[in-house]
Amino acid sequence: MTPLRQRMLDDMRMRNLAPGTQDHYVRAVARFAKHFNRSPDELGPEHVREYLLHLIRVGASWSLYNVVRGGILFFYRVTLNRKDWAFGEIACAKNRPHLPVVLSREEVNQFLDAAPDLRHRAILSLIYATGLRVSEVAALAVGDIDSQRMVVRVGHGKGDKDRYVMLSPKILELLRTYWRAYQPKDWLFVGEAPGRHLNTRTVQLACRDAAQAAGLTKVVTPHVLRHTFATHLLEGGTNLRTIQVLLGHRSLQTTARYLYVSMEAVTGTVSPFDRLDAAVTSPAPAAEVNRDARALRWPT
């Protein structure tokens, strides 16, 4: 590891940036330097601008653009202390929000049934049962499962905040079956490296494989399971404030987007047309209906 990379990692740790953010920022600077085949401390604002325009030309998403921009600017402003450079002109892209992908209950059943083994089924079922982020479920300790209080303790979640989520009796039964089979000691889901917890990439690949085995056309990721958890809670009558607490959202506005994907919230809303006076909506004479049907057929 180069001294520059180590210094950047130290700077991010001192500011308590999330491990995922640290990884994204370091990768962004590495790819930026590789693009010009030069050390990043030899590059300047015009190189940053040129590289970001390159990302736009090759079709990178706006969310990736913003992550790369954030990583490069952190490197120059903090690690190299070049605060006098005119980086303010390199604007943050407006990221158009998209509705999250959500699975139906039938699709969730298909998906979990297609998990290749008990370990993967326990991991994926736990995400759907609790709405945990992939980094949170991967780093769970055995002691975080509190069967006395029927809660799961989520330590050091996003923003370094701790919280509790519910532990359902069915998921507890599955976790006990998993524990008897694998006998984890410290981490609930042990990684390949000794003494380390599961890698988030392993969970993401397990999601992909289970979705393909289930024959689902939707792209399923751990975050899709989290979206599905929240949407199904909303459709079951749980209020938004409770869902916000369970998900660990800072803003209620973030949680409110699930109103847009809840089918029960949509189909359960009465149209104002249905409240019109009966005389307005009374059927037309049969002859008139037949004439109109011949003139305009409903699209199939």
UniProtKB/TrEMBL annotation:
Origin superkingdom: Bacteria
Transmembrane segments: none
Record bears the keyword DNA-binding: yes
Domain Tyr recombinase: start-end pairs: 98-271
Cited Gene3D superfamilies: 1.10.150.130, Intergrase catalytic core
One Pfam family cited in the UniProt record for this chain: Phage_integrase
Example of a GO MF term: DNA binding
Domain Core-binding (CB) span(s) in chain numbering: 1-80
Keyword vocabulary terms for this entry: DNA integration, DNA recombination, DNA-binding
GO biological process, alphabetically ordered: DNA integration; DNA recombination
Family classification: Belongs to the 'phage' integrase family.
Official protein name in the record: Tyr recombinase domain-containing protein
Originating species: Gemmata massiliana
